[in-house]
Amino acid sequence: MGFYRRVTVDGAAAEAVDAVWRIESARIVAGVARIVRDVGLAEELAGDALVAALEQWPESGVPKNPGAWLMAIAKRRAIDLIRRKDTYQRKLQEMGHELELDGESVEDDVEAILEDTIEDDLLRLVFTACHPVLTMDARVTLTLKLLGGLKTDEIARAFLAPESTIAQRIVRAKRNLAKAEVGFEVPAGPELLDRLGSVLEVVYLIYNEGYSATAGDDWMRPTLCNEAMRLGRLLAELMPEEPEVHGLLALMELQSSRANARVGPDGEPVLLLEQDRRRWDRLLINRGLAGLDRAWALDKPPGPYLVQAAIAACHARAADPDDTDWARIAGLYAVLAQLVPSPVVELNRAVAISMASGPAQGLEAVDALADEPSLKDYHLLPSVRGDLLFKLGRFDEARKEFEKAAGLTRNERERTLLLERAAAC
Question: Of 87, 217, 278, 302, which is most buried with the most CB atoms under 10 A?
Fold first, then answer.
């Protein structure tokens, strides 16, 4: 949050404020941004409310409705700020309401406006934080900061980046939004679907970095997975008629159901076919399958996240690896390749083909990708090839592929696994 430095409080009070902030911060920033029309300024005002809580709650105790308390303080600061500006009347016209300047009527009217539109405000905040005018790194960082309520140092740890780098990225993102005069609004018509794609991409990037960390000593980073799923659930509530939103949430829940089985006792990776499926989380599987059903029930053409969720469901429904419908998975990857042509999708399809039709056919499909420039430094290409060569008994070739893959990955856990597989050849 970055606000604790301004006040000194006991640990219990700070812990209570921190817990409330993580839950309520997005709503507070969204509500205030509706008044001031500036995300960066809205976060500063929300931070002022947080400081007030740190100063007052240790003596007065935590209020019965702490989120409403923080919202009220932040809104009052916003209104005071607007009152001091010459643009106050213009701001009132933008809000579409003739508010009175005397007494408590300003606060009362704004309170009613925000209570009526809090879900719309959250949706506006999502689309603002994920605006294409920002780089993808900036979108991811700003989304975690504004909608995840994560502190700057937490984001830095999650992405193995210096805290100063993350702080500068957040400042630049807010400045660029203001410079581009990005409206605090949900786009309409065709632009909505285009921008929704950016939003979903940001959420899935956050999830993927948590599910398979690209670098460092940890195979998974559960904090990022949980934040991405929380954002997915928020989007599913705000946009219930969009199948891709439900598809993405279902995909994340189905993949996360394997989390307990994906990591061994010493933190080492456990591959899908070697996992103890009794350790899979049945609650998450049931939620994911239900979300998948909701998406199909909307009877709209499937998008890439819905297709990927359908693939994950094939694994989730198989109590034993031998029960997996690999032919259907290969077919779904073919559909996915039509929706989003990608060598990575083709590589995954090759794995499914190998499981459905044998390693020789899978290797043929993998070798067709050997000259693909975008896979030149992608460690999973030699990893998959090594696995197929091993199954075909071509152990010397397999060893070289595993060693090549180990040299390309930046994740220490994955490198160790690949070197062990090379040694087993």
Answer: 302
